[in-house]
From TrEMBL:
GO terms for molecular function: ATP binding; metal ion binding; SUMO activating enzyme activity. This is Ubiquitin-activating enzyme E1-like. It comes from Pichia californica. Residues 19-440 form the THIF-type NAD/FAD binding fold domain. One of its GO terms (biological process) is protein sumoylation. InterPro entries: ThiF/MoeB/HesA, ThiF_NAD_FAD-bd, Ub-E1_IAD_1, Ub_act_enz_dom_a_sf, Uba2, Ubiquitin-activating_enz, UBQ-activ_enz_E1_Cys_AS. ATP binds at residues 27-32, 51, 59-62, 75, 121-126. The keyword Cytoplasm applies. The lineage of its organism: Eukaryota, Fungi, Dikarya, Ascomycota, Saccharomycotina. GO terms for cellular component: cytoplasm; SUMO activating enzyme complex. It is found in: Cytoplasm. Residues 552-562 have a biased composition (Acidic residues).
Length: 606
C-alpha cells in the first residue's frame, strides 16, 4: 500500500500537513539514518539532511543506510542516495558540513524550515541548534541515546523547556595528581597514557612548548616538582623522537627508563603519597631489557601487535609497547601528524601497552585491547534498537505539530519520551515543563539585528539601541563570548567600524547600565544592502535584579513599612509592581523620608 494511503487511513481527511512541510535533520548517524527513513514514511515535503562526517567502518553495524563500499563517503549524501529506491514523495537535500559553520549555514539557512530534528552526538552542536531554534522560533525535536538509555524532547520555544533549561552532566574528569602520581583504577592509567604520554611524545605541537603542570593542582610540593621534572624530560625525549637522523635502538630504552623507572623512583621517594596507599613497584623486566640491549634493533618484532597479546604476560605487553613505539616514531619521522584514534592500531596499541605497564607498576588490573579502546575512545555502546525506538518517537512526537501547528499552545502539551527501567515497559513519558526562568538561553529576550557592518560605527549601533528601546541612560555592549565592546568607561571603540568587532552570526548581549531593563540578546545579520540598522521589536522585561528586589521588598513591606512609588508607564501591567520598587521610599523612625536611589552595579569583562 502506498504511504499516502497509510497516512490517510491513520489520520482520515484531516491529514496533517506533512507534504507541505520543509524540515532539517541534523546528523545522519545512528539516530539520523532511522529518522530519515521515518520522515520519508511520513511523506514530509522536503527533508534537508546535514552532517559533517564521512562513513567509518564502525558505523556500519547500526547506520543501516550505509554499506562497506560507502566508507569514507559523506554521510548526508550517502544517506539520501541510499533511500532512493523507497517509494516516497519527499524531496531530499544533503549538506556536508558542521551545523555550526556560520558561513555555510547562516541564520537565513535555518529560516526556511518549519521543524528541526536533532540527531547529534555532542552537547556543543545541540546547544547551538537549540539557540537557533529559539532565535527563529522553530520547534526542535531533540533526541539522543547512550546504550540502552534514550530520550526524545520536543522543544516548543518559550512554551516548553529548551535544551539548555536543564543542567547537563559534563564528562567525568580526574584530578591531575591522580593521573600523574597516584592512579588507582585502569581508567586513570589509560587517561595518563592517552592524554599525557601519547600526546606529549607523539602528538602535534612544539616539544619546547609542553606546558608545565599547574602547581596549585597538587597538594604536595615535592609531587608538583616531580611532575614538572617529568614534563621537562619528556620534552627532551620528544626531541629525540622528532630527530629524523635518529634510528638508534637506545632511544627505546631511554624512553622506557624515564617513564617506567626514573619517574616511578621519584614518586616512591615522596613518603606522604604512600601513607595510605600501596607503593608502586618496578616491572620485573630486567632480563628482558638486557636481552634486548644486547641483541639490538635487529631482533625487535616491529609488527608485533595486539592480535598477539597475551594479557597475562608482562613480556607480551612490553613487546607491543616496543613495536608500537617504533611504528609511531617511524610515522612521525615520515612527516605524519599523529593524534590518538581508537581505530588506528598503532596509537591504540601504544596506549593499551603503556597504560597496562603503568597498571602493573601500581598494582592495578590490566585491560584488554577491547576495553582500552572503549575507555580511551570514550565509546558508549550504541544500540541499534534504541536508536530506532527514539528516532521513531521523535518522528511520532512531531505528528502533533503537523496536525495542529496553528494551536501551538495545545501542541506544547505533548510529552517527552525516555527509556524505562521498569521490566514491563520499554519507555516512559512525562509532560513537557515550562521553561526554566533562569535559563541563560531561553529566559533572555532575543532578536535579530540587520545592519551593514562595514558601513557603520559602534556609536551608530549604541545610539540606535538607546533610542529604540528607551534606555534611560546608557548600555553595555558585549559579545556572547564575553568581549566587552562598549560601556561608559570604554569609549575608544565608539568610532571604530562594526566590522572590526563583529561578523555575520556574532551574538551581542545588551545590558542596561541602569540595571532597570533586562539583558537582551541580538543575533547580528550582516546585510550589505541595508542602509540603516534594523532592530527587532522587543518587549524588554525589567531586570532580574529589580524583579528580585521587588519580591524582597514585598516581604520588607510588612517589617519596615516600605511604601512603594514609581513610574510604571513603560511596563507590562503584571510587572509594574516589581519594577516600581526601583525608587523606594523608606520611612525611618523619625518620620523623615529617605529616597534610596537604585545603585547600578556594573560588570566588566576584559
Ligand atoms: N556540528 C555538527 N554538524 C553536523 N553533524 C554533526 C555535528 N556534530 C556531530 N554531527 C553528526 O551527528 C551524528 C551523530 O551520530 P552518532 O551518534 O551515531 O555518531 P557517529 O559519529 O556516527 O558514531 P560513533 O561516534 O559511534 O563513531 C554523526 O554522524 C556526526 O557526524
Ligand atoms: Zn531554556
Amino acid at each position: 500500500m502506498a504511504i499516502d494511503s497509510y497516512i490517510q487511513r491513520m489520520f482520515g481527511d484531516d491529514s496533517p500537513t506533512f507534504g507541505t512541510s520543509k524540515v532539517l535533520l541534523v546528523g545522519a548517524g545512528g539516530i539520523g539514518c532511522e529518522l530519515l527513513k521515518d520522515l520519508i514514511m511520513m511523506n514530509i515535503g522536503e527533508i534537508h539532511v546535514l552532517d559533517l562526517d564521512t562513513i567509518d567502518l564502525s558505523n556500519l553495524n547500526r547506520q543501516f543506510l550505509f554499506r562497506h563500499k560507502d566508507i569514507k563517503q559523506s554521510k548526508s549524501k550517502t544517506a539520501i542516495k541510499a533511500v532512493e529506491f523507497f517509494n516516497y514523495k519527499s524531496k531530499l537535500f544533503s549538506y556536508h558540513g558542521s551545523v555550526m559553520d556560520k558561513i555555510m549555514f547562516p541564520l537565513s539557512f535555518f529560516q526556511q524550515f518549519n521543524v528541526i530534528y536533532n540527531a547529534l552526538d555532542n552537547l556543543e552542536a545541540r546547544f547551538y541548534v537549540n539557540r537557533i531554534s529559539l532565535y527563529l522560533n522553530i520547534p526542535l525535536y531533540e533526541s539522543g541515546t547512550t546504550g540502552l538509555k534514550g530520550q526524545v524532547q520536543p522543544i516548543y520555544p518559550y512554551l516548553t523547556e529548551c535544551f539548555n533549561c536543564i543542567p547537563k552532566e559534563t564528562p567525568k574528569t580526574f584530578p591531575v595528581c591522580t593521573i600523574r602520581s597516584t592512579p588507582s583504577k585502569p581508567v586513570h592509567c589509560i587517561t595518563w597514557a592517552k592524554d599525557f604520554l601519547f600526546s606529549q611524545l607523539f602528538g602535534e605541537g612544539d616539544p619546547n612548548d609542553i606546558p608545565s603542570p599547574d602547581v596549585s593542582e597538587f597538594t604536595n610540593e615535592e609531587e608538583a616538582k616531580a611532575s614538572a621534572n617529568e614534563v621537562n624530560e619528556l620534552s627532551d625525549l620528544r626531541k629525540l623522537v622528532d630527530d629524523s637522523k635518529f634510528s638508534d635502538f637506545d632511544f627505546l630504552i631511554k624512553i622506557f627508563n624515564k617513564i617506567f623507572i626514573n619517574d616511578i623512583e621519584r614518586l616512591i621517594k615522596i613518603d606522604d603519597l604512600w601513607k595510605s596507599r600501596e607503593k608502586p613497584s618496578f616491572l620485573p623486566l630486567g632480563d628482558y631489557l638486557n636481552l634486548l640491549k644486547s641483541t639490538g634493533d635487529s631482533k625487535i618484532d616491529r609488527v608485533y601487535n595486539s592480535k598477539d597479546l597475551d594479557q597475562s604476560s608482562i613480556e607480551s605487553i612490553f613487546k607491543i609497547y616496543i613495536a608500537s613505539t617504533l611504528r609511531l616514531s617511524d610515522r612521525l619521522r615520515n612527516g605524519e601528524k599523529l593524534e590518538f584514534d581508537k581505530d588506528d592500531i598503532d596509537t591504540l596499541n601504544y596506549v593499551m601497552s603503556t597504560s597496562n605497564l603503568r597498571s602493573l607498576i601500581f598494582g592495578i588490573q590490566t585491560k584488554s585491547e577491547f576495553d582500552v579502546k572503549q575507555i580511551a575512545g570514550n565509546i558508549i555502546p550504541a544500540v541499534a534498537t534504541m536508536n530506532a525506538i527514539m528516532a521513531g518517537f521523535s518522528a511520532l512526537s512531531s505528528v502533533n505539530y503537523y496536525i495542529e501547528k496553528d494551536n501551538i499552545e495545545r501542541v506544547s502539551k505533548s510529552k517527552m519520551i525516555f527509556d524505562s527501567s521498569a521490566s514491563d515497559k520499554v519507555v516512559n513519558s512525562s509532560k513537557l515543563v515550562k521553561p526554566n526562568p533562569s535559563c541563560s538561553a531561553c529566559s533572555v529576550v532575543k532578536g535579530i539585528v540587520k545592519l551593514n557592518l562595514s558601513n557603520l560605527k559602534l556609536s551608530d549601533l549604541r545610539d540606535k539601541l538607546l533610542s529604540k528601546y528607551n534606555y534611560d541612560d546608557d548600555v553595555e555592549i558585549m559579545t556572547l563570548d564575553s568581549r566587552l565592546l562598549y560601556d561608559y568607561d570604554i569609549e575608544e571603540n565608539l568610532e571604530k567600524k562594526l566590522s572590526d568587532f563583529l561578523n555575520d552570526g556574532t551574538v551581542l548581549l545588551i545590558n542596561d547600565s541602569d540595571e532597570k531593563l533586562d539583558i537582551i540578546e541580538l543575533y547580528v545579520v550582516n546585510d550589505s544592502s541595508s542602509t540603516e540598522i534594523v532592530l527587532p521589536e522587543l518587549s524588554i522585561p525589567p531586570s532580574k535584579k529589580l524583579r528580585n528586589q521587588g519580591t524582597n521588598d514585598d516581604d520588607d513591606d510588612i517589617e519596615d513599612g516600605v511604601v512603594e512609588n514609581g513610574d510604571s508607564d513603560t511596563l507590562n501591567k503584571d510587572e509594574s509592581s516589581t519594577v516600581a520598587s526601583s525608587t523606594i521610599v523608606l520611612e525611618d523612625n523619625d518620620d523623615d523620608l529617605i529616597i534610596e536611589e537604585p545603585n547600578p552595579k556594573r560588570r566588566k569583562i576584559n
